[in-house]
Amino acid sequence: MRFAILGSLEVNANNTRISITAPKQRAVLVTLLLDANNEVPVERLTRFVWDGQPPVAAQTTLQSYIYRLRQLLQPMTGVELTTSAAGYRLQVDPDETDVWSFRDRVAEAREKAQHGDLAGSARDLRSALSLWRGNALAGIPGKLLQQEARFLEDERVTAYEDLFAAELELGNHRTIVPELKKLVSMHQFHETLRAQLMVALYRCARQAEALHAYAQIRRRLREDLGIEPGRELQNLHRAILEQVAPASLTLPSSAG
């Protein structure tokens, strides 16, 4: 990948990493990459780079950041940073940016799932998720850009949901339990991941652990938010208590 933001920012040209150390210059590049191949208005750039409080001379300073970026990216064939009256556009092959490659692979996986190729879908989803190297936009300052990072994390979690749904349909419940436990520990209020873990544990003949997983999220929801788990998760808990056949267990249809 020439441009990577699913983790810390990395820029590579001809197998050589380009160092971009100035925090605001990194923020400019990330903002352009988030909307690669589209014109990014000056107003959006200044708002994101200065976190909603651009100084009076923001546009002039932005021009200097753009100039420096052009110099850094000049050795990269096929990459162009253009200017218009309204803003700037970073022209780059989507296959050379990890975020767009991730989205393309997820889209391909979902198409395969719709056509019944669950094994192919799972492979594509794992390929997509392998592009993540940590938290998106790691080390990039600013609340607005960190909000964008949270949106990217939502896409990541949804891809995991799709992956585990496919793996459960394929009967691979034993192999995904460790992955699910790790994801659930990171997203403790997420009901779909919790339900998938409960189903996987139940199908592994680990009913007590499945019930404990439900008790954990119910306690956290009640203590921290003052609410009960959603109806679908409650129904799943009841089905496990009654030892319903695994094939009849249903999952929540959306994140909790």
Notes on the protein architecture:
The protein is mainly alpha-helical and 256 residues long. It contains ten helices and six strands; from the N terminus they run βββαβααββααααααα. It folds into two domains: 1-155, Winged helix-like DNA-binding domain superfamily/Winged helix DNA-binding domain (Arc Repressor Mutant, subunit A, Orthogonal Bundle); 171-256, Tetratricopeptide repeat domain (Serine Threonine Protein Phosphatase 5, Tetratricopeptide repeat, Alpha Horseshoe), CATH 1.25.40.10. 58% of the residues lie in helices and 7% in strands. The strands form two sheets. It has a three-stranded antiparallel beta sheet with strand order 1-2-3, with no helix packed on it. Strands 4-6-5 form a three-stranded antiparallel beta sheet. Helix 1 crosses helix 2 (42-49), helix 4 packs antiparallel against helix 5 and helix 7 packs antiparallel against helix 8. The longest helix is centred in the middle third of the chain and has 27 residues, at 143-169.
Please write out the topology:
Elements lengths: L2 E2 L5 E4 L2 E2 L5 H12 L5 E2 H8 L8 H16 L6 E4 L3 E5 L6 H17 L3 H12 L13 H27 L3 H14 L4 H13 L3 H19 L5 H11 L15
Antiparallel strand pairs: 1-2, 2-3, 4-6, 5-6
Task: Kindly summarize this structure in a few lines.
With 256 residues, this protein is mostly helical. The chain is 58% helix and 7% strand.
Low-confidence stretches: none
Helix content: 55-70%
Share of residues in strands: 5-15%
* Main CATH class of the largest domain: Mainly Alpha
